[in-house]
């Protein structure tokens, strides 16, 4: 059952607000990537000189943008659900199965968040930069990805007790 099914509004409170804020920032980041691409193509067409480092800027902005939507997708339970074999089961049992898989998703996303946090710290310590014209430091983009994975894990954990109490 979807979070936005009839009779229930979208989830509210501070945890869902975090997911919405990250999705908004992810959308803004993708908008920046689209604008940089558009301006760079127009400049390349009119002046033969694109925005310097456009590939670096767009790749980082797009990556950060995509990470921004993970928590919101989990909050709204719009991830891929395969219920072909469980539709005949009672609703409460289906909710318990969903809660189990959300726990698995939470474990995976929180583990990825921890790994990416270590990766961001290592990238910061080593001074690693993008390979290109701008040589941008990108530890901060990895840290944002880690935060987004952690938020997705938090959203999954937010759902588990609600599903087990029958509030899906």
What overall form do the CA principal axes indicate?
A: elongated
Give the class from helix and strand content and strand pairing: mainly alpha
- Count of helix runs: 5
What is the N-to-C order of secondary-structure elements (H for helix, E for strand)? HHHHH
Provide the domain count: 1
Oligomeric state, counting identical vs distinct chains: single chain
Radius of gyration: 20 Å
Amino-to-carboxy terminus distance: 7 Å
In percent, how helical is the residue content? 55-70%
What about the largest sheet?
Answer: none
Descriptive notes:
The protein has 168 residues and is an all-alpha fold. It has one domain. It is built from five helices and no strands. The longest helix has 36 residues. The chain is elongated and about 65 Å long. The termini are close together.
In short:
This protein is an all-alpha fold. The protein has helices at 14-47, 54-68, 70-75, 91-126, 139-164.
